[in-house]
Amino acid sequence: STSTSTSTSTSFCSAYSASVRMPTSLNRSRCPVDQRVSSSSASSSSLLSASFSVSWFAALGRSSSPLESASQQYRCLCTQTVLPLHSSETVSPLVTPSIVESAAGAQEDPESYLLSPELSDTPASFLPQAVIKVFSMNTPSNHTLPWQSRRSKSSTGSGFVIQGQRIITNAHVVADNTFVAVRKLGCPTKYTAKVVAIGHECDLALLEVDNETFWEGVVALEFGDLPQLQDTVHVLGYPTGGDNLSVTRGIVSRLEPQQYAHMNGTTSLLAIQIDGAINPGNSGGPVFVGEAVVGVAFQNLVGAENIGFIIPTPVVNHFLKDVDSHGRFTGFGSLGITALPLENHQLRRYFRMQEHHSGVLVSHILPLSKAADTLKRDDVLMSVDGVPIANDGTIRFRGIERIFFDYLFVHKFVGDSVRCRVLRDAKEKEVDVVLSAGDRLVPPRSPLEYPSYFVYAGLVFVRLTQSYLMEFGEEWWNHCPRSLLQLAIHGQLQYPDEEVVVLSHVLVDEANYGYDSYAALQLIDVNNTKVRNMQHLIEMVESGDDEFVRFNFEQAVTLAFDRKKAVERSSEILTKHRVAFDRSPELR
């Protein structure tokens, strides 16, 4: 929902600068942007398998896919402001570069009374200045007209200082950014920051500030362990409703894998549910138990009161170790299987399981996963690294608690090896499985900073992503073509460079007149040769010597062009429709 004024429009923010309603409603917390999805969704999805090892949640009785159910909505919480069309004349004062690092006034020390006496167990002498307000200018891509960007929006979120003179915040706070600035508590000066690493899968980002003045008097916060149920937590940040530091208190209610709203519910990672208020602008702020940071605030549950979610330290530490080891975020290791529960007694008998056996059934192995070398369909996965798996897919967690076994991979990286004990043909066997990257055919976001596109004779071809499907409106999962939605939910890579190429729409010209009604169709082949990806499409239309170029799409749609005339008209079509290049930068 967006409230509009003459110069700005305000809403609770999503991972993108625009309001995004998701099928499972979680809310990200970037300050002013309306997102009905807080970054920790409370249900798992059959879309899954990209971030963890398996896509089996629906089978295990967990909530249905976020693209199939709108029963719960989460939103990422950062505050955003839409800039006027002529933003060069009236730039939002939040992040105007001219005021960054200006000597607007003397830097003041934070007042100790800003913290409640109830926080006496926290290191009040340095804690306030370690909690940072983040200002981001975000310019999202236009996936319908992929050569353009949408209007810039100013958003604010929270962050905090960690070891190595770095600031950690949420990915959705700085997603699609063109400019980022940060400000300490009690300091009138904003300092330019740069994003040095971003992990959309886990909704985390790292910022650096080159100005040494910024770091004066700032002490890094320390991470603690996972909190216990009913532990008291304090959430610090800069939510909507004011400009100064805010402190709220709650208790730990639940700890289990949740959908992360920033990735449209396609990522399910460990998250902590608390009953403390997490509002727009809180995203990226630290959550304390005593003096230790136990997580990063990132989303809430829409339609519920005081249900917030934080990213726990195991996920945060994985992100930091990944960046330190590889220079960038590479993701979480995936076992690469689809698994089913074995709670039915007859099913267990069919696979010749004894009374002391328990585990889940390997019903499918992803084509590109390393598991195909060692696991087989109909194996019963009994344990991973010595941790036994129950018939419902859970493992023992912290005493009497139980958690789904995908938690075992939260500490693992792509390329790590795990020891799996399986029951195969009624015989127990141990095998080593190398973890793979996710094999999703349709990525939630473009791997690039911009959409991939190619224009031929006025036909606009794009790579299918969930960002493209979201162009179909607020309830995009109901309005986008069913065939493309099914690819987004269930599609798996069959070969490493596979992409789904889609005819987005037609730039009308005499060369393509009569074709203008065709849109949002998957391209199957060109001149009867199957299209592998965008680059392959370009090679086929530019290097062929046939008189005609024939495009075959789904739904038995065929379009044909005289090759010579298509080339002759291309330049004029681009000029007439104000398109500077016929393809995106990586395809030139």
Low-confidence stretches: 1-25, 29-71, 81-120, 122-126
Sheet having the most strands: 16 strands, mixed
**Number of helical segments?**
9
What proportion of the residues is helical, as a percent range? 10-25%
Summarize the SSE layout with pairings:
Layout: E1 3-4, E2 9-12, E3 25-30, E4 73-82, H1 127-130, E5 131-138, E6 153-162, E7 166-169, H2 171-174, E8 177-183, E9 191-199, E10 204-208, E11 232-237, E12 246-260, E13 267-274, E14 286-289, E15 292-301, E16 308-312, H3 313-326, E17 337-341, H4 345-350, E18 360-365, E19 380-384, E20 387-388, E21 394-397, E22 401-404, E23 417-424, E24 427-434, E25 453-456, E26 459-463, H5 466-469, H6 476-479, H7 482-490, E27 501-506, E28 521-526, E29 529-530, H8 534-543, E30 548-553, E31 557-562, H9 563-576
Overview of the structural elements:
The protein is mostly beta strands and about 600 residues long. About 10% of the residues lie in helices and about 30% in strands. The chain contains nine helices and 31 strands. The strands form four sheets. The protein has a 16-stranded mixed sheet that branches. A hairpin with a 2-residue loop joins strand 28 (about 520-525) and strand 29.
